[in-house]
Amino acid sequence: MTLLVDAADDLALLPDLAAAGVDGFQVRAKAVTDAELLCLARLVIGAVAPLGASVTVCDRVDVALASGADGVHVGADDLPVAEVRALADAVRPGLLVGATCRDRAGVVRAAAAGASYAGIGPVRASDSKAGLPEPLGVAAVAAAAGVLPLVAVGGLDAATARATRAAGAQGVAVIGAVWRDPDPVGAAEVLVAAVG
Fold first, then answer.
1. 128 annotated ligand-binding residue
2. 26 a known binding residue?
3. Annotation-wise, does 116 bind a ligand?
4. How far is CA 4 from its chain centroid?
5. Which of 22, 48, 146, 155 is the most exposed place for a label (fewest CB within 10 A)?
């Protein structure tokens, strides 16, 4: 399970979240400077990497490379996957490159461009990010499975996360299901159990 992390989140909980079974963290902080984003990425890596969790950076291959993150995740409005793969391979071959996709055709294009995995969603309505398209539903995960490892995202709770795994997703990514819960670590444990 991947948890998205912003600078405003309770960063002191990161080691506890990793110990609870969150094995991936994605740094996504839109309202910070480049220098602050780099510092945040390094802080997250320092907090969770010793516990075996991986860290990706949203949108920014430069920050992913400079921070020593395990990967970068790019959306439709970011640098194209092929360009990100070329940049990454020139500096650190093997860097994970994730791509946001909405359907099987998008996953096929991402695979051809060199993506390591595809994030598919939003599965359900979510208010964690403005301007999201209409929810796809769990059926879209099943339709896109089998090309690249899939990470389902968007409005997931434990039941929907479990359903996306059953539909073929290798993982899930969440924000609100953990950070908006009064007990983020407890919420993470429930989600990890649901997708385990």
1. yes
2. yes
3. no
4. 6
5. 146
Beta carbons of 61 and 35 less than 8 angstroms apart = no
Q: Has 27 been labeled as part of a binding site? A: yes
> How many whole angstroms separate alpha carbon 160 and alpha carbon 67?
33
Residue 109 annotated as part of some ligand binding site: no
Q: Give this prediction's pTM.
A: 0.95
**Residue 78 annotated as part of some ligand binding site:** yes
State pLDDT tens for residues 1-37.
999 999 999 999 999 999 999 999 999 999 999 999 9
State pLDDT tens for residues 40-99: 999 999 999 999 999 999 999 999 999 999 999 999 899 999 999 999 999 999 999 999
125: confidence class by pLDDT, cuts 50, 70, 90 = confident
Question: What six digits make up the tokens of 13?
Answer: 């909980």
CA-only gyration radius of the chain, Å: 15
**Size of the chain, expressed as the number of residues it contains:** 196
- Read off the amino acid at residue 133: P
Query: What are φ and ψ of residue 104, in 5° steps?
Result: -60, -40
Distance (Å, rounded) from C-alpha 6 to C-alpha 109? 29
Q: What six digits make up the tokens of 114?
A: 């060199």
Secondary structure class of 173 (helix, strand, coil)? strand
The domains of the chain, with CATH numbers, are 2-195 (3.20.20.70)
Q: 170 labelled as ligand-binding?
A: no
Tell me: is residue 59 an annotated ligand-binding position: yes
